[in-house]
Design goal:
alpha+beta, 8-stranded mixed sheet, 3 helices, 8 strands, about 35% strand
């Protein structure tokens, strides 16, 4: 039996992929607490490993990994966005983000 979808995952907007910015972005009207709850579930659906949360004043950051590619998941309440991007120096980062964007049916912007 498939796990129940968390109601917060349903609050995420349609994902958007920007190759120019190197980001896979979900618009989301969430609080920091809600983003911290939904992030592990979202990354599990993408089959990404999620590291420990690093919290700033208005931003959350999680190191993440998809196969051998180092990524970063970030949330900023001020812009109602949760986004995934390749870490600096990730050789196959653009290719990995494009693959993940296709997996979630992201709109190309």
């Amino acid at each position: 039996m498939e796990p129940t979808v968390n109601a917060l995952l349903l609050k995420l907007g349609r994902p958007q992929y920007s190759a120019d910015r190197g980001q896979l972005l979900w618009p989301c009207p969430l609080t920091q607490e809600q983003a911290a709850e939904v992030a592990p579930q979202l990354m599990a659906r993408l089959e990404c490993q999620l590291g420990a949360l690093e919290q700033g004043a208005d931003r959350l950051f999680w190191p993440a990994r998809f196969e051998d590619t180092v990524l970063g998941l970030q949330f900023e309440a001020l812009c109602d966005s949760l986004w995934l991007e390749a870490s600096d120096g990730a050789v196959d980062g653009a290719e990995t983000l494009a693959f993940l964007a296709a997996q979630v049916g992201a709109e190309h912007v």
